[in-house]
Amino acid sequence: SLAHRCHHSSTAMLDVPFLPFCAFLGTLGFLCVAMVGTWCQHWRGGFSLDGSSRTFNWHPVLMVTGLVVLYGAAALVYRIPNTWSSPKLPWKVLHGSLALGAFVLTVLGLAAVFCFHNSQGTPNMYSLHSWMGLGTVLLFSCQWAAGFGAFLLPWAPAWLRALYKPIHVFFGSTILLLSVASCVSGINEKLFFSLKNGTMEYKLLPAEAVFANTLGLLILIFGVLVVAALARPSWKRPDSNSLASHQ
After folding, report:
1. Is 247 part of a structural domain of the chain?
2. Residue ranges of the alpha helices (H) in 77-206?
3. What Cα–Cα distance (Å) separates residue 86 from each residue in 91, 170, 215?
4. Which of 26, 59, 180, 212 is least surrounded, with the fewest CB atoms within 10 Å of its CB?
5. Residue burial 133-168, b: 16+ Cβ < 10 Å; e: rest
6. How many domains does one find in the chain?
7. Where is the Cytochrome b561 domain (predicted)?
8. Residue 13 domain-assigned (yes or no)
9. In this predicted model, which residue has the larger pLDDT, 1 or 145?
């Protein structure tokens, strides 16, 4: 029927191969990291560990790199088709290690902003961005610890793993979207704080504002594409029963 053919052609159009999609996503993630580094280096004075605004500049770079890009990579490990027919343990270790690396960068990013605030006498944890960001990091730490206990340690019973797995998957996507929201609100907050003198006002849209707004949009697109990949049924690793029958 016409409806069936239309449905078939629409699904065919959307049938993007996973590995080219991943290559595009990797390029987009690299671009996000390069742009946040360029923003802080070119417009915000570079990087140091002296407690000045140049110490703060580590915060956006580490958060975008860890909480968005590296975390997104960790989330997509099980979508790689090569992992489906091979033993699961090495991929579990890779997934957990990437997530741990993301967590370490995130904690260093938090340390940078607290160090900057304390050295400047600025209050901590008063903005919506800071509440959302810290909440995301706390949720991330619980997610990693629970995932490590349930899936990497050998004594977790099978029924517990089966019960926890959909929860782990749900919070994986949720944390990534919260990370994106935290980064975008942080970029906006930084621009409001920084661009307020004379001709450099944010509302006049100087080059820095255009650049940082674009960075925010790219981070948003990256997060949405990762969540879309995680939700796509044909890219999900088959469960062990269907995998055995498939082989």
Report:
1. no
2. 89-120, 128-147, 158-194
3. 9, 25, 37
4. 26
5. beebbeebeebbeebeebbeeeeeeeeeeeebeeee
6. 1
7. 24-231
8. no
9. 145
